[in-house]
Structure formats: C-alpha cells, structure tokens
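INFO batch 0412 | record 1 of 1 | parsing
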Amino acid sequence: IAQAWDECGTEILPLLVHVLERPFQKIERAVRMALREQANVPGSLERAVAMAVTRDQKLAVQKVTKVLAMYSLVPEAKKPMCECTGMLRWLTRIIDTHNYNRVKPGAPVFGGTTGASSGGASLSGMDGGEDAKAKRLELAARATSGSGLYMTEAARFNTIATLTNLAALEANRMSMLHEAGLLDNICRAVHNERSDVPKQCSALAIMNLSNGDMDHVPEMARNDLVLETLLKLMKEENPETRRNAVVTIFNVACSDQNTVRLARYRDGTILEALIELVGSDDPVLRTHDEARANAAETIFNMSCSEISETTDRMANHAGLLECLAVTLRGEHTGLEVKMYCSATLRRMAELIKHPMIAQGALLSALVKAATWTNTDCIAEAFRAQASFRDNCVIMAHHHGLLNALSRLALTRGEGADVEKVRMASCLAIELMSRHDEARALLSQNEGIIMALTKASYGEEERDGDLRESNMSELEGSVTGFMDTSGKSEDDLSLQSRRIQVALKNLVGAM
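INFO prediction complete | emitting tokens
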C-alpha cells in the first residue's frame, strides 16, 4: 500500500474526490429540478433524492472509500489526504445519517442540519422573492440532509475508518474539527449504524479528535450530541469502546471551562456515568479495569479545576464521595484506580469546609476510606479538614471519625510512605486538639491517646529528650494554626514537638 501511494497516491487523490462528489451533485441537481417543477407536491423531494443516485455510483463510492481507508494507513498519506480539496467535505457527506429517524415523529434530534451549506450554494440562483428563496433553501437543506443514507453501509464504515486514521495525526485534528458537520456525523454513526464495528471505530475517531494539538483543547463540551454519544459509548459492552469514550471525556476535561459544562450536563449525568464505571467492582469484568482507571483519573482531573462551580457540583453530587471511599475498599479494584480515588478525596477535603452541605458526606467517606494506607492521601485529607478551625468540633463529633483517625496514626509497617501516613494523622489530631471542645472529646478516646503517646516516644528516641525551653515556646501553639508543610529536619523536629504538646494538653484535659 505504501508503495502504491508513493507511485501515484498524490496524483490520484483529486480523481478519487471527483468520484465521491458525483452522486451528491446529482442529488443537488435532482432537488433543484424538483423544487422548480413540483414544489407543492408532497414527497417529491424525497423521491427525487432517492432516484438520483444509481447503483453503479453507490458501488463506485464504496470502492473509492475502501481505497482511501487503505491509503489512510500510510503515515505519509495522512496529511496530503486531509489537505486535498473537497476530501473532508465529501467524506462528511457520506456518513451523514442525520435524518435516520425522520419517519418517527418526536424522535430526538441533536445538532444542526449538515446539508444546509451545500444545498444553499446550489439553489441560490433560483427565481422568486426573498421569502420564497429562503423557503426553498430550507426545503433543499432538509432533502439533502442525511444523504449518506443513500450510500452503502460498507461505504460509510470505510469512511469512518478513513477519518479515524486521519485523526491519528495531530496536524490534521483541528482542520477536521473545523469541517462543518464532520464530528456530528461521526457521532450519529454511533446512534444510527446497526453494526457494532462502526460504533467502535467512531469511538476511536472521537477520541483521536479530542486530543487536539499542542495549542488547543477541543471545545467538545459545547456539543450536546457529542456528550450524548459519549454517554452511550460508556455503556457499551466492548471494553475498548468504553475506554475510548472515557479518555475522550478526560481530554475534554483538560480545559477548566469544559469541566463546568461536563459537570452541568443534564444535571450531572456524565458524573453519574463516571461514578458507575469507577464503582463497578466485579471480578468477572476485570477486562474493563483500564476504563475504570481512566474514569477515576477523569474525576480527579475535574476535581483539580480552578472553577468553584465545577468542584461544588462534584462535592454535592449524590454518591460521588461515597463511591470513591467504597472503591478504596474493593477487593477486585486495581491499584491505579485506588490511587486516583484517594487523591480525589484529598483534593475534595481541601475544598470542603463548614458550613458546606457536603462536609458530612465527606467526613463519612473519609471514615470509610481510612483503611487506605498505600499513600498518605486519606491521612492528609483528615489533616486538611482539621486545618480549618471551624471543622474541628464537627470532626470530633462525627461518628467513627476519631477511631478511624487513630487507626491511621497507629498504622503498622516500616518505610517512608507508612511514616507519612502516621505523621499526617498525628498532625491532624494535633490541629484538632487546639480547640477546647474538640480537645475534651479527643482526651476520652483511647486510640487517640495511644497514637500520640506512641508518636511522641518514637520521636524522643530519635531526637532525644525535649528541652523545657522548647516546651514553653510551643505552649502558645494551642491557640493558633500554623503551616507545617515543609520537610526539612527543623520542620520535622517542630512537628514532633507539636505532637508532644498536643499529648500534654490532652492529658491535662482528662
């Protein structure tokens, strides 16, 4: 194939495009004639379009699209094919199934009419007033829309395959996205084609286009048809199709403005689909682990948005925080999925605080997720919550929270990661102990006292006995909150002294 392209590919492309455009030009001529001769006869336009294309022309288009599908596999051919005049336009028309459900009144229709521009160009010279011309243009657009239905199913599949391969080249993506109707018609193939293969190919094409280029993130979130298509693809049985759909959403979510639209769409339907995929902990469906990981990563990516509406909608979405916590306890869940779930909970803990409605759901989720010690994300989430002074009493009163926090602080094991979990948990306890009411509740919890005692003696063995001057210097930390995110030896020593002060204060409150 590569040899054939080298020999005559560039020269033959205009001829192939000419073969593709002939049936559509005949359709436009037939519509123009029907409007002139039988403008008021019901069904005349549809009959004219149906009779315009011959069987030989359909087969010619099918064979040409097969050749183009093969050429599109050659790396050197991708860019010349995309830049060839008329290529994208007629490929878009071949897969136009816009009126697939036109015989069903009330059937949902997404997007605009794709044939309006081509119909308008052919009929602009017709006689009559402006109103008559506008009406004829509208009739022509309706008649020519969905012209891909008059092509063979094989021709449409070959075209989708060609567009998928062309979109694999970064330099082609933005020009393809700017081609009127191209993305919409690829999406319609998912809804209208009977075979699963075109759906799978369309999912890959949409994913390729969603990658954009180095300077652009495609604005796909503005297109309801695209979002509806992605929702449908995420429920397909084929794991590769589901993965491609989720990767598309991830790519789109790389823009903050897009995250808002994704979170808003149909009152959180996309979030619900992602949650359903992340939470499907079924050992029989281990083949979709990659899609689960991509879905978890997408949720984390959206949680990192700088737009408050996005994170607020996520925090208030019913079941999201619960799903993340339960997933961390799943027996058949992959490590990558759990890593993203724990990171998302940590991110949400940094954003949610009193008096937000979602705080109760967050604290319940953190209690359930407290079994996760592979990273310090959950421990740091508790610490982030405790860093807000108004949260401390609420945390102390929350059912099971002190026990969960003490278990994290008493995590067994060796290594830097385990030490981070223990230290973050102890520092969360220390922050809570600065509040009088919370301190009273902390002092009554055996696990909390044991955790601080163990941490305190462990630090004494490493750093030596505390000096009285340092103790008196830190007495005042009971009334104030400070940032201890540094990791130098001095900061670690300061953290250990804070823990010991907290223990002293809790013992005094007994």
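INFO post-check: The chain has a mean pLDDT of 85.
INFO record closed
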